[in-house]
Write a structure and sequence with these properties.
The structure holds 2 protein chains of 2 kinds. By secondary structure, chain A is mostly beta strands. Chain A is 0% helix and 42% strand. Classes of the chains: A mainly beta, B mainly beta. The A-B interface holds A 4, 9, 43-46, 49, 86, 88, 90, 93-94, 98-106 and B 3-4, 31, 33, 40-45, 48, 56, 91, 95, 97, 100-102, 104-110.
Amino acid sequence: AQRVTQPEKLLSVFKGAPVELKCNYSYSGSPELFWYVQYSRQRLQLLLRHISRESIKGFTADLNKGETSFHLKKPFAQEEDSAMYYCALSGAAGGTSYGKLTFGQGTILTVHP
Amino acid sequence: EAGVVQSPRYKIIEKKQPVAFWCNPISGHNTLYWYRQNLGQGPELLIRYENEEAVDDSQLPKDRFSAERLKGVDSTLKIQPAELGDSAVYLCASSRIAGLTTYEQYFGPGTRLTVT
């Protein structure tokens, strides 16, 4: 079974401070990992996926297969980063769970001025 | 481009009543998903369609939930009869799948269901 765990429901930082949102997963095989974000009164939207290896809005996330983690990081948080962040997992291409997203419970990030 | 459209946005019903949600995916997206999001939780997949075929409905409570995607475009999710525990936000999402590549899932605004 695939599972995603986000240990922190709430995370508060001050503007300019580094931020790390933790995500751990359980999956037998090679998964695809994603971070989704939901800003206040907006739709859930993709922030980044590990296969793209991009930095979006200053955020990066590295897949650590040894620790089964996909933590989201940003060196200098901004007030506009305040949102709900969900880590999600999909099975590898060709598998039965490919394209099926399993979400964590989410972390509410608040960036104070 | 127009995003995923869902209606209604809010629905309040009494338990044991039926309810239906409608979703119109992004044009050209062949894959459609219905998720349920309980308060304080992440979305959970209920059913996934590729064109008009339900390829994964293992999480759909089939005793009271049903879904259809006629002509492989719009989709309707129905609950009959509704129970108090069905109160949640129901999200629709769509994406393209080409070969072994699944592209980004785009989510609709959701329908917030309250069962009293």
